[in-house]
Design brief:
Order of helices and strands: HHH
Oligomer: single chain
Number of helices: 3
Shape: elongated
Length: 88
């Protein structure tokens, strides 16, 4: 009976994997996300000179004066590499 149950389990199509005890920290989660989907949050990305200048000036003047006129305020979401996260 046990062998029959094990055979049933082995016949299930496997699609993906489960990580145990990883990631354990936010840094590890960010590295895993980068590896899976290539996504790096704006807070963690290396800033180019234009973005650095924008952030510096936005502290002095209102951002509407330095944002391009054609900016439509639409932020495009990027699909995560994670299907789900479960903490037990």
């Amino acid at each position: 009976m046990l062998q029959e149950e094990l055979d049933k389990i082995n016949k299930v199509k496997k699609n993906g994997w489960i990580l145990l005890d990883f990631p354990r920290t936010l840094t590890q989660a960010k590295l895993l996300e980068k590896g899976l989907s290539g996504y790096v949050s704006n807070a963690d990305s290396v800033k180019d000179e234009q973005k650095d200048t924008f952030e510096s000036w936005s502290k002095v003047i209102t951002p509407s004066e330095v944002v391009p006129v054609d900016f439509d305020e639409q932020i495009k979401a990027q699909k995560s590499g994670f299907d789900g996260i479960l903490f037990m």
